[in-house]
């Protein structure tokens, strides 16, 4: 577990966004810049995902972020999010085998209660786990929700034409770059939106201003939850690695104990 946990944070960990727009509708946000064709693709994508109204209704989001290598699970992190209030619960295991639960009263403020191996964490250790929980929130939720984030402040969209797949797919290719956003603003992402379905079939990315080649993941198994569409499997090109989302649920109500009690089950 030690090696896989570190691998996941450093290699799978992607762009870290600011949180100010997470609770907003994508259409209520404004991109720093985007050409008309890129905006057209973004709007079509949002409609295919379920539209503005259904995204706004999706208050509670629950999912497990699972990393699989060579057919074996090497990382599993449980999440529960109240998008309206910022309350957040995340559970995981550290590289030392410590099982932790972080209950954020407000994920935006990075404040909350920490439990390690079933007991309250000492004050001197709490901040480390709050930081870890925050990183898990940003990384894992971005993998799940990136298609909803195109119009955030600081995001630049550029249309780069069409691309064709081996099975006759035709994609609109859009480059996403970033300005004063998150911890790695030099990252670049290319999104491939299927002209027929309107959904994103894959992405490619180069992190931290690197020269490439780009890393590619197919976005598979799109399913509807509470009126919005989510991809539950991302498969890496050329390597036996997958990102899986399990126990996904989107709802308008939730047991309040899930955000306040260690004993609540996700």
3D structure, described in words:
The chain has 266 residues and is an alpha+beta fold. It has a single domain (2-259), classed as outer membrane lipoprotein receptor (LolB), chain A (Clam). The chain is built from four helices and 14 strands. It has a 14-stranded mixed β-sheet with strand order 1-8-9-10-11-12-13-14-2-3-4-5-6-7. Strand 8 (155-164) and strand 9 form a beta hairpin. It is globular. The two termini are 22 Å apart.
Strand order of the largest sheet: 1-8-9-10-11-12-13-14-2-3-4-5-6-7
Proportion of β residues? 35-45%
Tell me the helix content.
10-25%
Radius of gyration: 18 Å
Number of domains: 1
Mean pLDDT: 87
Cα distance spanning the termini: 22 Å
Number of helices: 4
Main pleated-sheet profile: 14 strands, mixed
What's this model, at a glance?
With 266 residues, this protein is an alpha+beta fold.
Q: What is the topological layout?
A:
Layout: H1 2-12, E1 33-34, H2 36-49, H3 51-57, E2 60-69, E3 72-82, E4 88-93, E5 99-106, E6 111-116, E7 119-120, H4 123-145, E8 155-164, E9 170-178, E10 188-194, E11 200-206, E12 215-225, E13 228-236, E14 241-251
Parallel strand pairs: 1-8
Antiparallel strand pairs: 2-3, 2-14, 3-4, 4-5, 5-6, 6-7, 8-9, 9-10, 10-11, 11-12, 12-13, 13-14
Question: Which features does this protein show?
Answer:
4 helices; outer membrane lipoprotein receptor (LolB), chain A; alpha+beta
């Amino acid at each position: 577990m030690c090696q896989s946990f570190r691998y996941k944070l450093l290699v799978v960990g992607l762009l870290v966004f600011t949180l100010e727009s997470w609770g907003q509708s994508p259409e209520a946000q404004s991109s720093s810049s985007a050409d008309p064709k890129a905006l057209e693709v973004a709007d079509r994508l949002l409609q295919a995902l379920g539209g503005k109204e259904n995204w706004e209704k999706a208050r509670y989001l629950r999912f497990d972020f699972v990393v699989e290598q060579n057919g074996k699970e090497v990382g599993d992190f449980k999440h529960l999010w109240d998008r309206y209030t910022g309350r957040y619960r995340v559970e995981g295991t550290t590289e030392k085998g410590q099982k932790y639960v972080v209950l954020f009263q407000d994920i935006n403020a990075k404040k909350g209660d920490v439990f390690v191996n079933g007991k309250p964490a000492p004050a001197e250790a709490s901040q480390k786990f709050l930081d870890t929980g925050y990183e898990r929130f940003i990384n894992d939720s971005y993998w799940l929700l990136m298609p909803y984030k195109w119009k955030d402040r600081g995001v630049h969209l550029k249309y780069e034409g069409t691309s064709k797949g081996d099975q006759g797919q035709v994609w609109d290719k859009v480059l996403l770059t970033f300005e004063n956003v998150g911890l790695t603003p030099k990252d670049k992402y290319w999104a491939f939106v299927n002209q027929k379905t309107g959904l994103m079939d894959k992405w490619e990315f180069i992190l931290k201003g690197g020269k490439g080649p780009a890393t590619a993941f197919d976005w598979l198994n799109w399913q509807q939850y509470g009126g919005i569409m989510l991809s539950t499997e991302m498969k890496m090109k050329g390597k036996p690695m997958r990102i899986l989302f399990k126990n996904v649920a989107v709802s308008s109500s939730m047991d309040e104990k899930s955000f306040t009690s260690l004993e609540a089950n996700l």
